[in-house]
Amino acid sequence: MNVSNAISTTPAIGSADFEGELALARSGAMQLGDLLERAGRLNLSGHAEASATLYENWIAHTESPVRHVACFNWGTVLAAMGRHGPAEQAYRQALALRPDFLHACLNLGHQLEQLGQPDGALEQWRRVVALTSTSAADQELRLHALNNCARLLETLRRFDEAERCMVDSLELKPEQADVIQHYVHLRQKMCAWPLYAPVGESTHNQLLMGTSPLAMLSVTDDPALHLLAAQRFSYERIPKLPVHRLHATGPRREGKVRVGYLSGDLCMHAVGLLVPELLELHDRDRFEVFAFCWSREDGSAQRRRLVAGVDHLVRIDKLDDLTAARLIAGLGIDILVDLQGLTSGARPAILGMRPAPVQVSYLGFPGCCGIPGVDWIIADRFVMPPEQLPYSTERPLYLDRCYQVSDRQREIGPIPARSTYGLPQDAFVFCSFNNNFKFTDAVFDAWMRIVRAVDGSVLWLLADNDWARENMLARAERLGVARERLHFAPRVSPADYLARFTLADLVLDTFPYNAGTTASDALWMGTPIVTLSGRSYISRMAGSLLTHVGLPDLVTHSLQDYERLAVQLGRQPRRIASYKRYLAEHGRSSPLFDVPGFVRDLEAEFERLALESRRA
Question: Model's pTM, two decimal places?
Fold first, then answer.
């Protein structure tokens, strides 16, 4: 609703011309159209402060029936400058003059959200919904308000309210890919099955095509659908910038190989828990290690260790993507390792500008990302067999060991008693501590058949949210499993989370989104896992870990075999004891946890690629 698109050279604040305009604004004689044109010209030419000053003085000295418009535009200028408190007051002033000014309600909601007042923001957006109809004339405003409510409610973990807003939005306009993306993933997090429940006029195809790359990993093990979701997301979300091959603008690459790790998760995060030794064990005689980071400073010992593990920590959270890419290129990075892929908070546009001659995807998004400029993905021949290669835009950088690095210095809390978590002392305890969005109805139904078939067994799951918990309990009852046979573990510190693996007899893996860090944690703590390996990278992760720890017989390749093996093991506690004894005696010394060997092998590949690119 802002004003003029005219762009011209404008005098700075304090110049005679601006002082004249300011005097005219204070006189009460300046017309609204002139104000909008002059303030807009100032704003577009980089003089936002002058623009805001002009609006402020005109509003203070002019009586006009359209003064609310000036207040609104004043608010937009202030908001763009990051002055959210004054912007809030400008919008409130506009609403005081015209209470039905719904655009001002929308923008006021945004300012309240920025100011840490989510309930106030929701109140404004709900007011817009209440004052609009489902007619075509009101559709844009209504959708804006509904979608903002849904987004904020999801952030606040008020999932049921968020879902209602998404449903209302999609019933009004089905073809909203962004809303569908959040709707599908929210239902995954709530274990609301069937996942693709009809909503409004949205078709099953629209729901499938709107599924995010991350959510698709939990929907199917079809690598073609994974590739499709990743490439669509990359095409739509990564800016088509004219800058390419930025690495060619950097300095001559010589001396030590410079490796840069790109991530916003170098903190208390699954990736941050896996990589400390990778950073620490790099051979400093041959490698120089950088972290290009926008991770939160969470104050944890893990964060401090990660920072100490690199030679250079370069924070790029306050840099735009182009500036960050130029910085990386200017530092002469040989190998840029992206630890985030297409997960939340990722910055794939940096990679699209190719600030390094060799760019590698690793850990954060276990599968094809489709990001332009990413050449390689770290893999092994189990997790990424040859038949999977046509469905990946990245080439495999194969290691002759498990693709996943681990950490041998994990802090482990005191070993608890089963009673600490309300588990029956004499029960056979199946468990799955994966995030609830990885759970699918097909695998959950298999879990229920397993529990029914093993007398005295219970299933111990992560309690991520109340809706997931209740949906699982209700489905269990429908499938003939009493509620009391499902136990839910609260979130605890990483050390206590590791310790409680010792209370379980057998981990039941999720499919098609296998356990990654969770599988590593279970095996480190000596608890065996039954997994199902499918066709996709992510559906083969736990199978790779089990193969390299020396327990390939716990890898299955169909849901029927997975279920059959879990039942057999549940009925044979001595066999479980044998697996636990093997892991206690040999697990931590197996190739899976040979971190120095992993780093040496990875460095050999990095050095080869770096030297090839330098010669080229």
Answer: 0.90
